[in-house]
Specification:
The chain is an alpha+beta fold and 284 residues long. It is built from nine helices and nine strands.
Length: 284
């Protein structure tokens, strides 16, 4: 280890040193493959970091809430925000940042079950946002449509497509997914047509509580950033055993796909290296 540290090398150089060191336990690793993957991840991080730093620079004052938003959206750690923010982040304290983090976890955990007396149901899970009963109905339809969107993308583009993030408001849904190139107009058309065909098929949407391991074995898709409890909720769309979509999810969802309405893709764009984004809405 002293030998590696003394080089003062970057990530690629360290991997090369390790792979060529016969005294190291993992000398049989393929350095070329690993450095390639490392380079891709570094590129993704650099792109996101650059965007985050620009957003940080734009802010006039950085408190705990803004700092947590920067962390959540761009992955900027507290330490970087505090250091780069300088005078803007003078009043920012670690304990306040940690409180915002804990608050977000509680909101996500409560999700749809969180009520505010006398004002209907308010929903903010971080992924879904609704401020009234009417808005809740809209985000519920869009949420189910987002499950169909991921299923359609995997059908058209391949099973390597996985959800990387989503954001749903009463006006639209936004899905980030793993894919390494821009979609063609033909592919977007196929995806849109497939989603709408599933909607028109009036498929049932059912939830089942399962042990985490059983859910994984059943083929249910999970969101890679989440840590799941021992018991999870799995939403399946379509006939049991022949579901068109099956995902770990806390809800809410419509009971049948025909309730969604006409699905329209409004934009497809890059987010970072290997990650694309689709924005879509429902025509009333």
């Amino acid at each position: 280890m002293r030998r590696i540290i003394s080089y003062g090398a970057n990530g690629e150089e360290l991997l090369e040193i390790i792979s060529n060191d016969k005294n190291y336990s993992y000398y049989e690793l393929n350095a070329k493959t690993i450095t390639g993957a490392y380079g891709e991840e570094k590129e993704k991080f650099s792109y996101t970091l650059e965007r985050g730093l620009k957003e940080l620079e734009r802010r006039e004052k950085i408190g705990a809430k803004i700092a947590f938003d920067l962390y959540q959206s761009y992955g900027l750690p507290y330490e970087i925000i505090k250091e780069v923010g300088g005078a803007k982040a003078k009043l920012l304290k670690r304990e306040d940042f940690d409180k915002e983090f804990a608050k977000h976890q509680e909101i996500s955990k409560a999700g749809i079950e969180k009520k505010f007396g006398g004002h209907g149901l308010i929903l903010d899970t971080g992924e879904l946002k609704a401020g009234s009963e009417e808005e809740l109905k809209k985000v519920t339809r869009l949420h189910t449509a987002t499950h169909l969107l991921q299923a359609s993308l995997r059908e058209v583009l391949g099973s390597e497509v996985r959800q990387m993030g989503s954001d749903i408001t009463p006006e639209r849904t936004r899905l980030d997914f793993s894919f390494n190139r821009k979609l063609t107009p033909e592919e977007l058309k196929k995806v849109s047509e497939l989603v709408n065909s599933m909607i028109k098929a009036d498929l049932s949407v059912k939830m089942k509580e399962m042990d985490y391991e059983d859910a994984v074995k059943s083929g249910a898709l999970s969101f890679f950033k989440h840590k799941y409890p021992k018991r999870v909720k799995v939403y399946g769309i379509g006939e049991e055993g022949k579901e068109v979509s099956k995902e770990f999810c806390g809800g809410p969802h419509v009971s049948r796909t025909s309730e969604i309405g006409k699905f329209v893709i409004t934009k497809e764009e890059a987010v970072s290296s290997g990650v694309r984004r689709i924005r879509a809405a429902i025509e009333s």
